Structure formats: structure tokens, C-alpha cells
Amino acid sequence: MTNLSARDRIAFALDVHSREEALRWVDTLQSEIGVFKVGLQLFISEGPRLLKDLAERNVACFLDLKIHDIPATVERAVHAAVAHQVRYVTVHAASGPEALRRAASCTLQANTKILAVTVLTSFSDTDLEAIGMMGNANAAAHRLARVSFDCGVRGFVCAPLECASLRQELGPEAHLVTPGIRRLNPGGSADDQKRTETATTAITHGADLLVVGRPIREAPDPLASARSILNEIEVASSRNAS
User: Fold this and answer.
1) Which range has highest mean pLDDT (20-34, 129-143, 192-206)?
2) CA Rg value for the chain
3) Cα separation, 103 vs 106, whole angstroms
4) Is residue 182 within 8 Å of 212, Cβ to Cβ?
5) Cβ-contact 201, 166 below 8 angstroms
6) Model confidence band, residue 184 (pLDDT cutoffs 50, 70, 90)
7) 45 pLDDT exceeds 90?
8) Residue 204 pLDDT more than 80?
9) How far apart are CA 94 and CA 82, in angstroms?
10) Region for 172 from its dihedrals, namely left if φ exceeds 0, alpha if ψ lies in -120 to 50, beta otherwise
11) Which residues are marked as active site?
12) By the 8 A CB rule, do 153 and 99 touch?
């Protein structure tokens, strides 16, 4: 399990349209948040230049491209991410054993951690059945995480409530990353996410890193919301340690 500071256990999702907007968010939040996630939308808009901007601001980059391709292409893509000195880069566990082994080998001498995406938090059991995957989301996440672990991957993206069982199966070496973090009021909406939970629940179940976007970005006071989630992490971490 992690020995990261609470600040480095929040990854803010930079789901915005431009470099300028992304950097405004970084400048606003970096006192409370140490990791900033660059996904497909922003990377396609702005490219590798933004990764350099984040490095210059001394914040960690979570490059969330969910790479899923033939083994040679996965290997080359991960190698390029390592060259940009990102802290995390995602690949789909469904890319298969050879691609996962190659991805893991690219990071053996690097500070970049591979994160294998198991089952997207937007997927329900019904969605999985529709695309022909056997079992429920929890079973599928375990199956994909085990394949990835056996190929040398030690970081995994899963839903919050899958953390406890994955932690038990994979042990303290696993680095568990959970999107779908919400601060829902009764009757509130999780947007397009279906397997969501609070920061407190995720940490209690063994998560190492929480990906948070809308609960901060759409808050009346984003910095105050970030501080509140940071406090949740600190309190839950203390309880876990006791």
C-alpha cells in the first residue's frame, strides 16, 4: 500500500478544452493536489507540450490515454510516455499478456508507473454482458487485474468498491487507482459513472490514488472542495493505519 502524502493521493482530472484552461486549474489547485490527469480530450487538443508545462510546475502528470493496441504499438507508446517523465500512464488490461509484459518492461528503470485499466467505472454488469464479457464487473476486474499482475504490472484502475477484494488478492504491492469519486447528496447524480463512491469509502477499502474531476471542477469553490477531499483522505488514512 502507499506511503504517499495525502496531496499526492488526489489526481485532478483536467477534462478541459485548452492548455490555458488546464494550466489555470493547475495554478489554482496545486497547493492541495499533487497529481494532474491529462486524458484523451486535452492530449489530442494540446499534445506533449502540456506534459512539459506540468513538469515545469513541479506537479506529477497522470497520462490517461488508456492505450489499447497490438503489443509493439503499446510498447512504443509507453516508451514515449516514459521519455516525457510522466508519473502514471494507463494501458487497457484487455490489450493482453504480451502487450502488458512489454508495457511493464518499459518502466523497469523509470519513475513512470503503468496502470492497467480493468473495467471502466461507466460500465454496469449489463454493459459487460452486451459486449460478451463473462461475469459481473467485480469478477471481470479481478480477472483482468490478475492477468496484468502476472505480466509484471503493479498499478490498477478499478472502481472504489473493488479495491478491498483486489487488495486482498494482490497484496500490498498493488497500487490501486479509483476514478468515480463523488460527493453525492441524497438523490444526486453520478453523471455517466455507474460504480461510484466517496473518497472516504475508497480509502477505507484500500485505494492509493483517487481520481477526482467534477466534484472539484463544478463546485462553487473548487479550492475549498479540494481541501475537503484532502481532509477526507487524511482522516480515512489515519483510521486505516490505527
Assistant:
1) 20-34
2) 17
3) 5
4) no
5) no
6) very low
7) yes
8) yes
9) 21
10) alpha
11) 66
12) no
User: Rounded to an integer, what distance in angstroms lies between the CA atom of residue 167 and that of residue 2?
Assistant: 12
- pLDDT given at position 166: 96
Distance from C-alpha of 62 to C-alpha of 180, rounded to nearest angstrom: 16
DSSP state, residue 87: S
Q: Nearest Cα to 114, choosing from 84, 94, 85, 87?
A: 87
**DSSP character at residue 111:** S
Could you give the angle at the alpha carbon of 191 between the alpha carbons of 118 and 205, nearest 5°? Answer: 45
190 band by pLDDT with thresholds 50, 70 and 90: very low
CA–CA dist 172, 214 (Å, integer): 30
User: 88-99 in b/e burial notation, b at 16+ Cβ within 10 A?
Assistant: bbbbbbbbeeeb
In one-letter notation, the amino acid at residue 36 is F
pTM summary value:
0.91
Q: Are 102 and 71 in contact (CB under 8 A)?
A: yes
Q: What is the pLDDT of residue 122?
A: 86
C-alpha grid cell for residue 220? 462553487
Cβ atoms < 10 Å from Cβ of 185: 7
Residues 107-123 have a mean pLDDT of 93
Helices marked H in 171-212: 199-204
Give residue 196's pLDDT.
60
Residue with cell 463523488: 182
* CA trace torsion 222, 56, 177, 190 (10° rounding): 30
Nearest Cα neighbor of 209 from 163, 143, 241 is: 163
